[in-house]
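Worked Example 4.2. Consider the chain below.
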Amino acid sequence: LQGMTASYSHLGDDQKAALEQERYLLVISNEASANPANALAAAGMYFNRKDHRKALALYDAFLATAPAGEEGAQALYQSGECLYALQYYEDAVARWRRVLAEHRDYAGTPEVLAKPGDTLFGLQAYAEAHAVYADLAARFPDSPAAEEALFNQANCVYNQGDYDAAATLFQAYVAAHPTGLRTLDAQQAIQACFLRSGRDMLAYVQQNPDATFAAEVLWEQGSEAFRAQRYAEAAQRLEAITLRYPDADVAPDALFYLAE
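Applying the procedure from the previous section yields the following structure tokens:
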């Protein structure tokens, strides 16, 4: 049946290919109880077609046979994906946690760990999500998922309102990944942390002159001093923009104010 599907597809007869695909799915689904491998294969095909309810039922049928090894781990993981797609988020997290508990050596573990973290974050369970991300970063520091986990730890703390601690974590991300995928986001988040916590942004810029928002901070400080007629202070801030950040968007305005 799979060969027929492929043949019709190769000949461009998509309607007949789809019919053969349906026949194949029906056959292997009906034989799932006799051959668990069929349940796993059919589940994957239904999942790819976004029929998550049928896929979940077949993954559960396969899991009922108590499979071991990577197939068991993959079925658990994919059943969590089905539950997530069906918006049973807490149940999805429970499945992914079972993968971690029952299949400690599963090759996809860092990515599996990230899934409950991302889901808990979306549910605004920031403390739980932070714990998951911290575990991922500690256990798999060299995995691609660890970089995102470090950023997300800071994001969790930020959303809990601890802006000083969040700034420290975002700074740790920038230090560890100066050219990382989220470095710009982290630098902007640091600025938000300082603003929300009432900390001195100018002090931060003096300590971190390469911060992406340094010129904007100096501009805000300089233009405010100018309006308050603190001209010596304004000149110091505005001149720093023209000397250190001549290509910044605010540099022409800084030069104009200096002339004033």
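The first helix runs from residue 2 to 10. Residues 1-13, 16-20 have pLDDT under 50 and may be disordered. Compare this with Example 4.1 before moving on.
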